[in-house]
Each structure stands twice: as C-alpha cells, then as structure tokens.
Amino acid sequence: MITPSTVETQGDVLRLRTVSSIRTIKRTRTRGKVTAFSRKSRRRLLEKFARMGNTKSPPVFLTLTYVSNMVDSTRGKAHLRTFLERVRRKFPKSSGVWRIEYQKRGAVHFHLILFNLPFWKADDIRDAWGEIIGEENPRIRIELCHSRRKLTSYVSKYIAKVASESFVSLSNVPYPHAGRWWGVFNKSFIPMAILRIYEVLENKKAFWNLRRAIDRYYPSRRKSYAGGAMLFTQNVDEWVRYFKVLAVT
Fold first, then answer.
1. Which of 8, 52, 58, 73 lies 20 to 30 Å from 196, alpha-carbon distance?
2. pTM of the predicted model as reported, rounded to 2 decimal places
C-alpha cells in the first residue's frame, strides 16, 4: 500500500507531509530529557494554539504568583497540579495550557490560558491558590481574551516568551530546572479546530508547486520537515483554494 503525501489544515496551521516526512516523524517521536524551554518546545506550544478553534466564551488569562521567593520549581509544579485538579473538580469541562516562568527576583510563577471557565470570583481564585501554597493574599492576575488577536498577543508575550538561557540568582548561581516548561490541562476539552486532510495520490506536481509557493512568499514563517512544510497563517482557506486550482491544472 502506497502512503500518500497530504495537505493538512487545522485552525491557522497549513502542513504539507511527504511520505518521507511521515516516516521521519514516526522514527523521531521519542524525546529526551527536558532541561530548557527550547525553540522546538516553543514551536510546539505555538502550534498547539494555532490549531485551536474559536470558543463560545472568552478564554481566561491567569497568572499565579507567590508572595515568598519560591525558587523550587518541583514544589511549585506540585502546587499547580493541585490547583488544576481543584479547577477540574469545580468545572469539569474547563481546560487550558500552563507555562512556568522565573521572575527577575528568582521566584517561579505560572501563566495559564483557561478555556470554558465559568465565572469564578477573583477573591475565590486567590483564596484557593493561597490555601494550596500556604500564603495569605497571594498575587494573581486575571484578564479575559475577548478576541483571537488578544489571545495571540498573550500567548506571544507571556506563554511562549523565551527567557535567557539560564536564570541566575543574586549569588550568580543558576536556578536548576528540569522537566516540562509547559503543559496541557484537561486535554480532551481543549477547543481544537476541525482537522482536514487532503491526500495527494496522483498530481504530485500540485503538491510541490504549493511547497515552492510557501517557500517563496513565507521563507521565514514556515518550518521544513524532510520535504514537507508547516506554515502558520490566517489565510489557510486561500491556500487550500490555491492548491485545488493547482490540482486540476
């Protein structure tokens, strides 16, 4: 059976897969130990948001911070897991993406984008977080993302922010951190857009002409994968129409 090349769309993602790129992905699926928020990790995070669809209610941007100078990321992530489990029990259909970050003072804090979260008083969120971390009046920040543009802005500015390669304390000792820098909460309820896949069995010329057009117009915005390519664009439908025109000419 011949594996076809494909043109795939989901949300703001256009992806071209060749037979060789599909095989390569299968061979390299296992990842090593996570020690830094790498460019690849950041790209996977941006791709996750780009593949999402519109939501009925505005996503919630939430930042959870400590009053104390908490520098233990392992303990901090344990606090975060407890908080997210509390959210899951209170709002079973809510979901989201979290990101750990170090502040300038060295303390860890967490940025979250939460979806399908019903109204929850700021004071109640603060009390819940404070109870978990054992602090009174901890710092939190809450904002609604009323548009996709605002959501994209928060993702770029906070969630996918790239910091310096090492975090140095006042004594010039790097803060150790190992493990995931971001993750997904309640994955099955993440509002992903509809995935559409167009198989290319006969007219391979149309596939490669589409690839060359992407290279020509967006050389810095696309990612190559062993012959395939991926592009983040808000004009996915226009690219699909262009591909269909190529396929019949």
1. 58
2. 0.79
Tokens encoding 60 = 């919630």
Mean pLDDT of all residues in 25-35: 52
User: How many Å apart are CA 74 and CA 92, to the nearest integer?
Assistant: 26
* Amino acid at the residue 69: N
Tell which residue, 60, 213, 73, 68, has the closest CA to residue 137: 68
CATH code assigned to 60-189: 3.30.70.1910
Token pair listed for 189:
């309820």
Chain center to CA of 200: 29
As a three-state string, the secondary structure of the chain is CCCCEEEEEECCEEEEECHHHHHHHHHCCCCCCCCCCCHHHHHHHHHHHHCECCCCCCCEEEEECCCCCCCCHHHHHHHHHHHHHHHHHHCCCCEEEEEEEECCCCCEEEEEEEECCCCCCHHHHHHHHHHHHCCCCCCEEEEECCCHHHHHHHHHHHHCCCCCCCCECCCCCECCCCCCCEEEECHHHCCECCCEEEEECCCHHHHHHHHHHHHHHCCCCEEEECCEEEEECCCHHHHHHHHHHHHHC
The count of residues in the chain is 249
Domain spans, the chain: 5-31+192-248, 60-189
